[in-house]
Design a protein that fits this description.
single chain, two-stranded antiparallel sheet, 9-stranded mixed β-sheet, alpha+beta
Length: 202
């Protein structure tokens, strides 16, 4: 991962230790975290609709944005949009959920014309990916373009299914840093500048 963000974990971007346990997963008498359900997250609504649009266009199973805080002393802001799940937003020390299909008064940021591709055949042990010609580059360019749209310092993480359920394909991008490609628990930092601009991408 980028040297100035070495602790970033795409499965737990804020270092929270993963999602809270479901109500029936704790010990008797333990308090269960209650997350408020809201109908807007204010200025972050545009990020919500952008990630949701990317998710639906690309066929991804998860789209995450890690954004710089509004105030330097605050932790980063997180928007986590997973397929068929409430959208989770963490900002200013508070975590809330929005219903996935909720209509918001915001328009998505301009996105690269990402296409849905069949699940790639992957071999995590040596990093091999069997994909349609240019397929990995297509996703890489789309994720890098999403990071650029989200703004300076933003991290975009997109996860796709593969032919191995235990080894999803994730791409993490931040402008100015190499893309990191993950297959299950294996990570591969791509060469700087990969992928090159695709024809017709503008």
């Amino acid at each position: 991962m980028p040297s100035d963000d070495a602790t970033f974990n795409e499965r737990d971007p804020l270092g929270l230790g993963g999602p809270p346990n479901p109500p029936d997963a704790g010990q008797p008498g333990e308090e269960v975290e209650v997350i408020d359900v809201v109908t807007t997250v204010g200025p972050l609504d545009v990020v919500v609709v952008t990630l949701r649009e990317f998710l639906h266009r690309s066929g991804a199973i998860r789209a995450v944005a890690l954004l710089p805080p509004e105030r330097e002393e605050d932790p980063p802001r997180l928007v986590d949009c997973a397929r068929l799940s409430p959208i989770e937003v963490t900002a200013g020390g508070r975590t809330v959920h929005l219903p996935h299909a909720l209509e918001l008064d915001a328009q998505p940021l301009e996105l690269y014309d990402v296409r849905m591709l069949p699940p790639f055949e992957v071999h995590p042990e040596d990093g091999r990916i069997a994909a349609p010609l240019g397929g990995v580059e297509h996703y890489g360019f789309a994720v890098r373009s999403l990071a650029a749209a989200l703004g300076e310092g933003a991290v975009a993480l997109i996860t796709f299914t593969t032919t191995l359920p235990e080894a999803p394909l994730s791409l993490t991008a931040r402008i100015g840093d190499p893309i990191v490609l993950s297959l299950g628990d294996e990570e591969y930092e791509m060469e700087a500048g990969w992928p090159e601009q695709l024809p017709g991408s503008g």
